[in-house]
Amino acid sequence: MSAAPPHRFSRGLTGPCADRHKQILAANREFSNPPHSQLAVAAATLTGKMVPNTPDLSEFFNPHLCANTDRMVNGRISPCKQKATMVCSKCYLVQYCCKACQVANWKLHKPSCNSELLEESYLPRYAKENRLPYNGPPDLTGAGKWFFGLNQYLWGNMPALDVLNMDKNEGKDSIMERDINLLFAASGDLRNVVKTIVGLPEDYAGNFVVVMNDENFAVTARNALLLLSAMHFEPETAVPIMIHLWYSVLLPLPIVRALQDYILPYVQDVCEKLESKATGSQQAKTFKFGHRSIRLVLKKEAWVRLSNMFMPLNQLSSHRAMQIRQATTCAPERIDFFDRALYNMLPGQRSGVWRFRQDGLLIPYGTSRKPFEYPNPTFFVEKDVWPMRDDADPLAGWSYNEYITHSKAAKNDVYGTFFNFLRSLFMEFCKQIHSVKIAFTLFDVDAVKLPSYLTDITFDRIEFKVSNVCDRGYIGASQTLEAFSPMLKAKTENPHATLIMLFLNAVDEAEIGMNPQTKVNSILLGMSRVRRFMPEASVNIINMILGVFDSHYLLQLPATDLAESITIGDAANFFRDFDGLFSTYLQRPVLQQSGSMEDFAQKHGVKIKAQHTIVKPWPCRLTDETTLAEFNIMRSGSLFGSQRYMEFEKLEENPDEATELSSLEQLSFK
């Protein structure tokens, strides 16, 4: 029988990570007084010039793939750095440079290679133990608690979006010398910005303005550090910094030094000049890099927080940082939730997801973890707090169909594949922003207040992706349109100007208001459709989901049938009547006001676009063309397809009444 992995949740470290952390406190003490470059280097940095001694981060740009990472040389651990041309043909998770390294590493690799997670026959523990999965303590509604951990979104939860999509809008020829202004009003992370800029023509010659805002300081701070790194360093150096600062819970010391020596002086210089400014006052600084710039608008105290970000937080060790994170990602009370998710995943994906839950490092499966010793301070902004939910996953912010094409020999190493994808994408992004005339402005204010900071600019695209500010529980559709529709360019300026709104919860909100019989009919409709992909969805299982049978019926089933019954119930969520529910929502999107979405749009000078030209209305849901293989991929993710985009355009206006507004000059990037 195949050996199971160390499939155990605890509040401490597990697996091979535990041994190496004994050496980490000493490494962190080295950074209690972190090294800084000489004044001359800092001065060169602050002028935006490339300093001559750019750090060598090639080890993290092209990580060594030979999994013999505990090789002993002269009595010391020395990971193999030879080119890995072989792959483990049993698990397809790791690579080796030679047979000798594979044999030497077998004792450590055996548990993951023989893991039941790789088997088609994998069963969650609740099925093996003949019990129903634990849904957590009831919340105020009486339902189980589906989410665990804090609700910050430092990573995206919807696939990245190119908000220009120029081929279906302005067109390449038209956009080549056109000045473009983009507003990401509740931006979340950088992924939409990255994807949009990568989509520009290589020889784009216009002025490109990007305004980003997120009320969460940690989000804005992370975006600022990522952009400063992308602009300051050469692409080969910037890319590994971006990957690990964005996604890895621990950082290698060379990356920490690079950030401290070359990036933080920008911020520290600002803080020195703000000492006499009033607390709470908004302070702006523009960092120029030739024809590129980043303008950061923060309160005085936020600048100080940003400058302190890379100082040790109360001597936080790597061991303690891992404990804090694992208290959320590996919480014992979440065993059944995680097993339930694993069961729905593709077999090749499970091992990577399990390992990332444990160590939080975005590197190939067989790459050495030893250089990653310093807690990523952009995650640990608050003492003893992991800021995200237990199911937060870097993969959720990107399209599976895009990153899976970067798979190499270790085809089951999904995070290694994702690393390859990000490396390629970030290289394109860094090269693009080094050649384009681009100006970024970043805010961290309430989205409703943002228009007061942007009175003299209109935009070709305004986007509300990531944050569900458009749903009833947040700002709401009417207030969103009222605040931002005046900032959209008129059709006389750009007939393709579009305001994009994402509704994450609208379908669920509409379903809450359904009468019981309508809800039953909706479930029946979903279950009749699920049989297309899951013919084992029997009448008995359908009745169980409808509540006709009690839990004792399920417990009489064999373990495999019990697990399958639970997952069929989960899969039924893909087949709800999304169109009908969203139509109901659109009739009254704001409960406190009468009026439909169409009424609110017209009131605020825009209209719903008849045809989407940026993004599909339902980009994540099943269609009549969805294959069984595609359905299984969708089940591996975190979305059921109820997320709905809407696109708005300006109403036609009288040209005599149009107000001419400038863009780059009025925003005064100085």
TrEMBL record:
It comes from Pyrenophora teres f. teres. This is DUF4470 multi-domain protein. It holds the Pfam family zf-MYND. Residues 77-113 form the MYND-type domain. Keywords: Metal-binding, Zinc, Zinc-finger. One of its GO terms (molecular function) is zinc ion binding. The lineage of its organism: Eukaryota, Fungi, Dikarya, Ascomycota, Pezizomycotina.
